[in-house]
Amino acid sequence: MVRPVSLADASSLRPTLLDVLQGFVHELRAGGLPVSMTENLDAMRAIAHLDLDDREQFKAALAATLVKQHRHRQSFDTVFNVYFSLFSDGLDADAEADAEADARARRGGEHNAQPGAHGLSGEGAEGGSQGLSREELAAMLVAALRRMDQDELRRLAALAVHQYAGMEPGRPVGGTYYLYRTLRQIDLDDLAARLMGQAKELGEVHEGALADRLAREEFQARLTAFRELIEEEIRRLLVADRGVDAMARTLRKPLPEDIEFMHASRDEMMALQHAVYPLTRALAARLAQRRKRKNRGALDFRKTVRASLSYGGVPAEPKFRSPHPSKPEVMVIADISGSVASFARFTLMFVYAMANQFSKVRSWVFIDGIDEVTHFFQESDDVLEAVRRVNTEADVVWVDGHSDYGHAFEIFHQRHCHEVTPKTSIILLGDARNNYHASQSWVVDDLAKRARHVYWLDPEPRGYWDTGDSIVSEYAKYCAGTFECRNLRQLQQFVTQVAEEG
User: Is the overall model pTM greater than 0.70, yes or no?
Assistant: First the structure.
């Protein structure tokens, strides 16, 4: 078994810790976190002043020096838990034997303590074949949870993993499997019932539904903390077996701005939703500064001559009129059919969150029919509510509800082509999978002649373009640019370009 490295021995730890820190920072960068060399040095200086035995303090110091945005914290926590798992307290054979002896002594047992499975070579008995019985372990857990003795709980978590997880060296099984096996034997629901029963017997829970609920929530929080200790022990053993770099690659998750719209899970969709507004605020501030530096008004001759009098008539200090930076008008035309609905949703959210960077924003959505939805955003201050109304109230079905870009574009041209001006930037959103209908690409050609720019955003990888029923190239030849736009980072880069070109 790989014994855990103790943080107490600072003299022997320091070279090892520096090596781990470098790997840790490298993995953060690989995961997309922007960690500079200066921040890396700041982290090293910070931990020189810490008590390395205090894991939470150590983690907080690294987070304060290496993480700049709240949405990156979850990725930081995942990488930290992997890279510093071997620096947490585990359980060795002697400690396990002591735990078993203590349990039997407390329960009046006469059995000799037998060391159970430990490391990655445990027998993993579903019923705990050699270690403590389930009843003995449950009794110890209830006592420790009532006291919330962190050291005892950590030791019992390690003991439970060694006894029930059945971890084997080199076995290509994820930590979730081992967690399931351990928790199935421990039975957290049974522990919660025991805790509640003992509390009621001792009069610690008052009568009434509210007191009962508060007690249950408190015990559930304690069990959640114990579950996290079990996960930590499993992770520690997996890292010891497979190596920290391999585990980090296995657990690496994309940052919210790098999650692909079309393949996001429900939880990732929520992360995307929370990431939209911070990104748009930062982008808006950056664009405002760029405009301020980039745009300078024409020379004000009268003020310049007046200022030159103090220099003997030399125009040493030219004066300029106040700048009036132009902002583009934007028309967004988005496919909201099932295959690209999430892409259209987040693009509309992003564009309307950036509305102050454009002089006017109008939007249409289509499947095989097309409908203007600008009023949904004008009638609500909540962009999420407006997007919900777009998805439920927009009249976008003409025949069968399958994408027909050609028909939708033709109807848009009939109704709105006269509203397109040389100040207008048109953004077309979709994968151009047209179900083998007529493309009517002449519409895009005519719009490009009328507008300042026409752009196409495609959420599919470039390698998928023009395959199957995709006809993106038929439209792309008339566009000022055709962009792969699979995530918020790429969308942010594109919106920056549109706003600056205005």
Answer: no
Question: Which residues, in sequence order, are bridge partners of residue 157?
Answer: none
Tell me how far CA of residue 462 lies from CA of 254, 439, 444, 466, in angstroms: 20, 20, 20, 9
Q: Report which of 348, 358, 360 is spatially closest to residue 386, judged by C-alpha positions.
A: 348
The DSSP H or E segment spanning 481 is: strand 481-484
Per DSSP, the three-state class of 371 is strand
Which amino acid is it at 502?
Answer: G
**Interatomic CA distance for residues 29 and 35, integer angstroms:** 6
Q: What single-letter amino acid sits at 342?
A: S
Q: How many CB atoms lie within 10 A of CB 480?
A: 14
Q: What is the pLDDT of residues 227-269, one digit of tens each?
A: 888 887 877 777 777 666 666 666 666 777 778 887 777 777 7
Type of residue numbered 13 = L
Task: Tell me the C-alpha distance between 162 and 160, whole Å.
Answer: 5
Cα distances from 233 to residues 16, 222, 256, in angstroms, run 21, 17, 28
What's the Cα-to-Cα distance from 220 to each of 83, 169, 198, 215, 469, rounded to whole Å? 29, 33, 15, 9, 52
